Amino acid sequence: MFIYLSKKIAIPNQIKLHSLSWNPEQGWIACGGENGLLKVLKLDSTGTTVTGELNTSKPRGVAAPSNLSMNQTLEGHNGGVMCVTWNANYRKLTTSDENGLIIVWMLHKGMWSEEMINNRNKSVVRDMKWTADGQKICIIYEDGAVIVGSVEGTRLWGKDLDAHLRFVEWSPDSRNIVFVTKSNEIHMYDYHGNKIKPLPLYALENNKKQESKKGDDDDWSDEDEQEEDTTIIGIHWYDGTEGHIDADAPTLAVAFRNGKCQIGRGEEDPKATLIDTRMTLTQCKWNAKGNVLALAGSVKSKSREGEERQVSQVQFYSPMGVHIKTLKVPGANGISAMSWEGSGLRIALAVDAYIYFANIRPDYMWGAFGNTLVYAHNKPDRTDVCVTFWNMKSNERYTKYLKGVKFIRGAGENCLLVLRNSLPAGAPPSSMDDNDENNNGEDSGPKPNQHTLMLCNSIGSPVDTKYIDIVPKFVEMTPFHVIVSDFRSVYIWQYRTNVSKLTSSDAGNGATAMLRRNTGRERMLDIEEVAANPAQTIENFKPKAGRIKDGICAITASKKNLIVARESGTIHRYSLPHISLENKYAIRQRPAHIRLNCDSTKLSIIDNGSILSVLDLDSNNDSSDGKEGTYGQLLQFERKDAWDLQWADDNPDLFAVMEKTRMYVFRNFHPEEPCQSSGYLSNFSDLQIQAIMLDDVMASPENPDRDMVLDFETKSLKDARELITNVGLTEATAYIEQHAHPRLWRLLAEAALEALELQVAEKAFVNVGDYPGIQYVKRLSGLGERMKQRAEVAAYFQRFDEAEAILREIDRKDLANELRIRLGDWFRVVALVQTGGGDDKMLMKAWNKIGEYYADRFKWQKAATYFSQAKNLMKMIECYYRLDDYDGMEKGVELMSEGNPELMEVGRMFESVGLHKQAVRCFQKAGDVKAAIDTCVLLNYWEEAVKLAEAHGFSQIEGLLAKYAGHLLSKGDKLQAVELYRKADKATEAARLLAGIAEDVGKRQVDPLRAKKLHVLAALEVERYRKKALDLSTMSTTKGKSVAATTAATLDTLMTADAESRAGGGAGDAGRKVMDNAWRGAEAYHYFLLSHRQLYSGDVDAAMKTAIRCAEFEDILEPKDIYSLIALTAYHSSHLNICSRAFIKLETLPGLDEATSDAIQTLALDIFKDQAPRNPSHLPTCYITCLETGQPYNACTITGRAVLDARTVGCKVCGHLMLEHELSVSNRKNCALCHSPIPGINFSIMEEEEEEGGD
C-alpha cells in the first residue's frame, strides 16, 4: 500500500478542530471545532454524484481527485463541537457541543438546515453512534445518561448508568451496545438497555500474553518509553456492510493511549490480536471495507540538534495485526480527529486548525495475463471470496467463489491463485508430499496448515494444483515458473516448459511424477544455503524452524533469473530453470517492490520509503586498486513517491513508473512528459502502456467496463504519429531510424501503404521482419493500376466497403465479387451477382453459403429458405428436420430423384421420429426395400412389414415374426404377442391367443367381465379373418374371371380358412373352439354376467331365464356355478320346478365330494319338504329343453329372454338378436354383446309402430 498527503484545508481564524466525520455514501465531510465551528465540505466524488449517479466529470484515469466543491458553515452551536456523526442511509448529520446541545441537520435544496434540536442541560455529550442501517442512534453523556432514539426523532428508551462514559459502539447486527467508561471498562448491553456482560481487555494483561507488532521502517529505543497511560482512546466495531476479507477476520478494535491496540473477532476472543504501535494514540478507525485499521497518534523524536519534539503519525494495520504502512503528518499537537472516505481511497486528518487529506493506493488482489484481468473482492452476503475472470476485450466474465484467497498473479496464458487451507472443487489433484510409500506420486489432497497453489486458465478452470507447506509471504509468476516464499524458504515450480507445454500434461503415473520432480519441476531453496547449487527436491528439503534475522522482503523473476531481496539490502541472483546462485549484490535500501527488465540486466527497486532506484546487474564495478570488483552497480537514478513500475516487454531501457497520480515513462533514464493517472500498470509493450483503474473496477466489481482499462502511448510513438500525419514520410522515416522500434516501423509501413509509397512500406516491413508484409507489397506493386492498389490497401486495413466502392467505380464488379468471396461476405456476393457481377452458379453457391451461415447459428427456418433457393435439398430437409416440420421434409423428398443415395439418410431421419410411412417411402424411392421392412419391424408396424415382404418376396419376415412372438410368449407377455399378431394382420393367431388368455382368466373365477372382453376380442379377430378371406375370394371377379371360376376360388378360400381354423395353433382347445364358434365364449360370460345384474337389481324372473340360457355352456363356465345360479334365481322367482331340476343337476354333477353332495341334498330337502316343485306359470319349452339337454335357443342379448315371435334386430358384427321393443325402451345404439354400433335404427318410428299395433 502507498499513501501520501495530497491536500490541506485551513480553517479560518485558526480555530482548532475537535471532530471530523466523512459521509461514506455521498462524500460530505463534517468538521467541528472551538467556538461553535461546524462546517460541511465536499470534495469531488471518486465515482458518484450527490444523487448517486455516475460522475462523468471526474478526470479520466485519476482516482480520488481533491477539488473542493462545497463549503457550508452551519450555525447553531455556541460551544465547541465535540462530536459529529453521519446517518448515510437517511442523509442526516447529528452534531453535539460541549454544552450538551444536540442538533440533527438535513439536506434541503442543496443546503444543510436544522431538523431537530435537543438540549439536556445537565452534562456534555461524549459520543453518538448510528446503527449500520441508520434506524437508531445511541447518545451517551459523560454523567452516565444513555438515550436511544429512532431516525424519526422518537425516544426509544433512556437509562442512567452508574459510570462516567467515554465511548459507545453498536454491534454489527445492531442488537447489542458497547459502552466504554472512564475507568477503562467495557460493558455490553442489549438493544433494550439490559446489561449482558463486561468485555475482557487482553491488551492490559501481563506481558506474557501480549503480542507486539511494530512497523518495519521505524526505529525505536527504550529511552522513549515512559509511564504507560492505559486510557481507552477509541473503539470501533466494523459493521461488515462491505463484506469480510476472511470469514475469521477480526472486527472489534480497542485502542489505548499507551500505544496498545486489541483486535478481536467479536466481543470475546481469547486469541485476539494485540498490537504495540509504540505511539501515544489518539484515534482508531477501520476503513469502510474493514481490511485496514488506522491508528493515529504521536511519537517523540529527536532532531539533528538534539531537540526533542512530537511527530504525528498514522500507522496502518491489516485485520491480522500486520503493519502495512506509516504516514507522517505535520503538526506538533497531534491528530485530534480522523475519518475514512467511503471508498477507502482517502483519509481525512484533523490537526490543529487544518484538515489533511491523504490518498491511498491499496494493495488489491489482482493479476493480468493476455486479455484477462483476474481480481478478488468480498460480498456482504458471503463469507468466501469472489474471484472474477474478466476478458477485457470481449467483456465476458466468469466467477469463482473460493475461501482463503491470499494472492493472485498472472503471466503468460495462466494465472495463479494462492489459497489457505482449501481445495477448490474441480481442481486437478497434485501433491507436494511424496514421502508416503503408498502414495505412488499421486495426490491425497491438502494437509492441515498447507496452502494451495491453483493454476487457472482464462475462464477460471483449474489447470493444475500444488500444495506447499511454507506460509506464502511473497509470490511471483512468469510464463514458465511460479515462485512462492516465506521469510527464508523459496519454492520454485516450473509449471510450463519452453516448448509451450504444461508440465501437468505429462504422463500422470507415479514413476513419471517422481521423475519430473527429480529433474527439477518443483524445487525448494533456502537463502541461507551457500552451496553453488542450493536448490533441493521437495523430498530432500528440510525447512528450518523460526524466522531468520535477515529474512526475505521481496522477490521477482524473469524467464532466466530469480531475484531474492533480503531485509539488509542483500540481493541474491539465481539462474532459472537450473537454480544456481549467480551473484550477490548489496544496497543500502530495504527493498519493498522489485522488478527485472526484459533481458534481466537491470533491477528496479522501490524501498519502504517509496524511493525508486535501479541496479545494473551486469556492470563490472572495478575497485580503485586495479583489482576486479564485484558485478552490479546502483545507478545514479532516483525517484520519490513511486508506488508501481512496469518494464517494457520489448525494450530493456524503457519502463513506466507511477508517482502519486502521475505516470512517467523513462527511456534510458530520461523522463518523458508525465500523464495524469492512478491506474495500476499491467502491461508495457509496443510502446503502449496498459493501466487498469482498479479503484473503479472494485467500486463495481460485478459490472466492469472497458473504459476502466486505459492505454497510454509513449512520446516516441506519439511523435512518430504526429510526423507522419503533419510533416511527411521522409521526416518520419528519419525519426524512426533514430528511435528504431518494431511498433514505429509498423506505423510507418501502414502510413506508407495508405500513401501508396511502396518502397517506404517495403523498407519498413524489412525492418520489422514481417515477411508476409514484404510479399504483400510485392503483390501490390504487381497490380500496376493505382485504383486497384488503393482498393487492395483499403481491404488490407479492413475497410472493405471502401475497397468495393473503388472496384465498382472502375467497373470491376468481378474483382469486388472476389473480394467479398475472400471475406466470406456472401450477402454482398448475392447483391453483386444480382447486379451483374457473376453467373447463376455463383448465385447458387452464395445462397448455399448463406444457408450454412444461418444453420451455424441455429436459425433453421432462414437456412431452409436459402437452401431451397440453392436447390440443396438435403440441407433443406435437415433444417426442416431440426424444425420438426415433417410436411416440409416430405415435400423435399418428392423433389428428390429416384435412387438418390441421400434418400437413405432422410429415411433414417423419419425413422428416428417414428414416421414409418414417410421412412418407407424414402427407402423404397432409394431402392432399398429391405431397409423399409426393417423400419416397419423396428417401429412395430408388422402389417406393413408383412405386406412389403410378401410383395417383394422376403420370406424371412415370417420367421422373424414367429421368433419375436415366441420371445414375448416366453416372457409371459401374451397381450403384447396379441398386439404383434394384430399389427402383422395374423388374425387367427391373435384370436387363438386371446381365447387362451380368456380361458385362463375364466378359470381363476375372479374377473368374468375381463374374460368376456377377451372372448369378444378373439371373436372380432376371427370375424376380421373371415371377412378378409371372403374379400380375397371375391377379388377375382374384378379380373375378368367367369362365374364358375369365381365360385371355385371362393370355395378354395373357404376350405383353406376352414383348414386353418382346425389347425388349432398354440392356444390349445380354446384356440380351436374360437375358430369353430367364435362368439360362444363371449355369449357364455355375457349371459352369466347379465343374470347376476338382473338378480341384484331385483328382476329375479328375467335373471332365472337368462341363467337357464347359460346351461348350454358347461364346457366354458363351471357347471356348479351355472346350476347354482339357476337354482337361486328360480327359488327367488318361485319357479320351484326349475329349482328342483337345477338341484337334480347339481346332485348328479361328477366329482362332487361327499360333504358338498350332502349339503346340496340337505338344502333341497329344506326347500321342497313343505313346497311342491311347481312353477307359477307356464314356461316355453325351449327353456326346459335347454336346462335338461343344453340345447341352445335364440335369446335376446339385452334381456336374456327367448326370442319366439317378436320383432328382432340382428347385429351385423356378431349376428346375435335383440328384441326390437327392448332396443327402443333402453334407447340402445350398440349391440349388448359385442358393443358394435347398430346402424339405421329410428326409435321414433319403432315407437309409432308399437303404438299403432297397440291400437
TrEMBL record:
<feature type="domain" description="IFT121-like zinc finger">
    <location>
        <begin position="1195"/>
        <end position="1238"/>
    </location>
</feature>
<dbReference type="Pfam" id="PF23145">
    <property type="entry name" value="Zf_2nd_IFT121"/>
</dbReference>
<dbReference type="InterPro" id="IPR056158">
    <property type="entry name" value="Beta-prop_IFT121_2nd"/>
</dbReference>
<dbReference type="InterPro" id="IPR001680">
    <property type="entry name" value="WD40_rpt"/>
</dbReference>
<dbReference type="Pfam" id="PF23387">
    <property type="entry name" value="TPR_IFT80_172"/>
</dbReference>
<feature type="region of interest" description="Disordered">
    <location>
        <begin position="426"/>
        <end position="451"/>
    </location>
</feature>
<dbReference type="InterPro" id="IPR039857">
    <property type="entry name" value="Ift122/121"/>
</dbReference>
<dbReference type="GO" id="GO:0097730">
    <property type="term" value="C:non-motile cilium"/>
</dbReference>
<keyword id="KW-0970">Cilium biogenesis/degradation</keyword>
<dbReference type="InterPro" id="IPR057979">
    <property type="entry name" value="TPR_IFT121"/>
</dbReference>
<keyword id="KW-0966">Cell projection</keyword>
<dbReference type="GO" id="GO:0035721">
    <property type="term" value="P:intraciliary retrograde transport"/>
</dbReference>
<dbReference type="Pfam" id="PF25768">
    <property type="entry name" value="TPR_IFT121"/>
</dbReference>
<feature type="domain" description="IFT80/172/WDR35 TPR">
    <location>
        <begin position="744"/>
        <end position="833"/>
    </location>
</feature>
<feature type="domain" description="IFT121/TULP4 N-terminal">
    <location>
        <begin position="1"/>
        <end position="361"/>
    </location>
</feature>
<dbReference type="Pfam" id="PF24797">
    <property type="entry name" value="Beta-prop_WDR35_TULP_N"/>
</dbReference>
<dbReference type="GO" id="GO:0030991">
    <property type="term" value="C:intraciliary transport particle A"/>
</dbReference>
<dbReference type="GO" id="GO:1905515">
    <property type="term" value="P:non-motile cilium assembly"/>
</dbReference>
<feature type="domain" description="IFT121 second beta-propeller">
    <location>
        <begin position="366"/>
        <end position="713"/>
    </location>
</feature>
<keyword id="KW-0969">Cilium</keyword>
<dbReference type="Pfam" id="PF23390">
    <property type="entry name" value="Beta-prop_WDR35_2nd"/>
</dbReference>
<feature type="domain" description="IFT121-like TPR repeats">
    <location>
        <begin position="1076"/>
        <end position="1174"/>
    </location>
</feature>
<dbReference type="InterPro" id="IPR056159">
    <property type="entry name" value="Beta-prop_IFT121_TULP_N"/>
</dbReference>
<feature type="repeat" description="WD">
    <location>
        <begin position="74"/>
        <end position="105"/>
    </location>
</feature>
<dbReference type="InterPro" id="IPR017233">
    <property type="entry name" value="WDR35"/>
</dbReference>
<dbReference type="InterPro" id="IPR056170">
    <property type="entry name" value="Znf_IFT121-like"/>
</dbReference>
<keyword id="KW-0853">WD repeat</keyword>
<dbReference type="Pfam" id="PF25170">
    <property type="entry name" value="TPR_WDR35"/>
</dbReference>
<dbReference type="InterPro" id="IPR056157">
    <property type="entry name" value="TPR_IFT80_172_dom"/>
</dbReference>
<keyword id="KW-0206">Cytoskeleton</keyword>
<dbReference type="InterPro" id="IPR057361">
    <property type="entry name" value="TPR_WDR35"/>
</dbReference>
<keyword id="KW-0677">Repeat</keyword>
<dbReference type="InterPro" id="IPR036322">
    <property type="entry name" value="WD40_repeat_dom_sf"/>
</dbReference>
<dbReference type="GO" id="GO:0061512">
    <property type="term" value="P:protein localization to cilium"/>
</dbReference>
<dbReference type="InterPro" id="IPR015943">
    <property type="entry name" value="WD40/YVTN_repeat-like_dom_sf"/>
</dbReference>
<keyword id="KW-0963">Cytoplasm</keyword>
<protein>
    <recommendedName>
        <fullName>Anaphase-promoting complex subunit 4 WD40 domain-containing protein</fullName>
    </recommendedName>
</protein>
<dbReference type="InterPro" id="IPR011990">
    <property type="entry name" value="TPR-like_helical_dom_sf"/>
</dbReference>
